[in-house]
Recover the amino acids of this structure.
């Protein structure tokens, strides 16, 4: 994997107890000033970041296998993104596109329209967060179809607003005590090859039967699905599952929405995970990696569907902020210039190579995913989910200076989301730390 230029040394270095004294002081301030529901995972407060490293207030350097939850695809300190932000901010930081429009909003929309799968005419609306994009995709689908129902899937995660919480499967920590939630949301069974042992066609038949029996196509505005589930455990559906759903939606005049908040923008080795399946969804939502760390999201889709809401029906004060748009244009240019599709594929190959030794351990049920979006699912001796060992491995990696995240409905999945600009040597070093931790637990 080709080395790139970095501002910070690309090395792991833990020189204090964790957290160090400065981070410990900052943590005391957090506990006094910030709502307790926000509990950071890293035992250090970041003051600098670049490439594949995060540096904390005490000078400790961590290997970043989280990317701010798949956000800093081009790195958390990308020079071109920072330059674009500074240049844009010197002119104006906000006017509100709905009031006083500006060219960067149009340029981002044009770029996303050109990148999204399919040769049909497309249009885009820009927003702030992934949840806002998903919620607006539902609004657009309802306006177009004149129907209300929304189908989502087991294990799915779509956000933290009221509607997207209704669409999200996992109760704790996301939904507990926050109801009642929006209505007309229905959950269908997802293809989970490790657990259900079904082919894609069989899993699709199961889901479609549920939809037809419990919802009815005549009541259904849209089917919303992550082509690779994120928080649910990086679940890649069996081949044929998504294609069958797509055909059913087309036949029944139901809008197919791909939630690519986490999987999109080079993360899986293509602009969109939909491309791996040869599918052109009606609408695609993006966020996370879109703007190099700046808050920006989008809904992109077929022009006739996107134009269904009436004038003034879509928008928001900050949606498509000009500084965030400048960051997005720079980030997308970096994805192209640095060949991040190819780097994502190389990262997957390296991850699978470095973890090959542990893939056969009894505690490892499966290593799955695509590109720079790879997961390891852990089980016990009875092939049941093992969140205890998962948490222990994650904690040991953090203590050794490697930041990794867990996920899955059962909390038994480690997910790897390194920045796609991470140097190969650093990637391998972090994976070796993870491998050793897995081996230690696998031998117990």
């Amino acid at each position: 994997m080709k080395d790139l230029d970095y501002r910070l040394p690309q090395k792991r270095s833990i020189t204090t107890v964790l957290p160090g004294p400065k981070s410990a002081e900052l943590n005391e301030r957090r506990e006094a000033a910030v709502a307790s529901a926000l509990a950071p995972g890293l035992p250090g407060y970041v003051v600098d970041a670049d490439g594949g490293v995060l540096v904390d207030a005490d000078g400790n350097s961590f290997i970043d296998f989280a990317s701010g939850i798949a956000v800093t695809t081009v790195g958390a300190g990308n020079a071109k993104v920072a330059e674009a932000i500074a240049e844009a901010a010197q002119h104006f930081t906000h006017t509100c596109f709905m009031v006083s429009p500006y060219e960067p909003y149009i340029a981002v929309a044009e770029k996303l329209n050109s990148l999204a799968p399919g040769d049909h005419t497309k249009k885009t609306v820009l927003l702030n967060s992934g949840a806002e994009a998903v919620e607006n995709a539902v609004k657009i689908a309802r306006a177009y179809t004149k129907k209300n129902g929304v189908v989502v899937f087991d294990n799915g995660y779509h956000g933290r607003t009221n509607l997207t919480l209704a669409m999200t499967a996992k109760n704790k920590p996301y939904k507990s005590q926050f109801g009642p939630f929006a209505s007309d949301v229905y959950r269908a069974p997802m293809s989970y090859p490790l657990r259900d042992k079904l082919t894609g066609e069989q899993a699709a038949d199961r889901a479609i039967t549920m939809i037809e029996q419990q919802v009815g196509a005549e009541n259904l505005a849209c089917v919303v699905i992550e082509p690779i589930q994120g928080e649910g455990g990086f679940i890649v559906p069996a081949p044929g599952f998504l294609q069958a759903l797509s055909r059913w939606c087309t036949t029944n005049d139901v809008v197919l929405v791909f939630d690519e908040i986490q999987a999109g923008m080079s993360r899986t080795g293509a602009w969109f995970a939909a491309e791996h399946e040869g599918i052109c969804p009606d609408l695609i939502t993006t966020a996370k990696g879109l703007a190099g760390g700046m808050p920006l999201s989008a809904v992109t889709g077929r022009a006739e569907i996107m134009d269904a809401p009436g004038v003034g029906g879509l928008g928001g004060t900050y949606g498509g902020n000009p500084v965030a748009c400048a960051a997005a244009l720079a980030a997308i240019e970096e994805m192209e210039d640095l060949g991040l599709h190819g780097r994502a594929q190389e990262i997957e190959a390296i991850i699978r190579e470095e973890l090959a030794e542990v893939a056969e351990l009894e505690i490892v049920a499966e290593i799955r995913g695509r590109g720079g979006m790879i997961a390891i699912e852990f089980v016990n001796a009875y092939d049941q989910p093992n969140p205890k060992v998962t948490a222990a491995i994650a904690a040991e990696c953090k203590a050794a200076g490697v930041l990794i995240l867990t996920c899955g409905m059962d909390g038994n999945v480690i997910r790897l989301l390194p920045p796609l600009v991470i140097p190969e040597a650093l990637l391998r070093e972090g994976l070796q730390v993870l491998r050793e931790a897995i081996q230690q637990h696998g031998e117990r």
Remarks:
- The two ends are 35 Å apart (CA to CA).
- The CA atoms of residues 92 and 426 lie 38 Å apart.
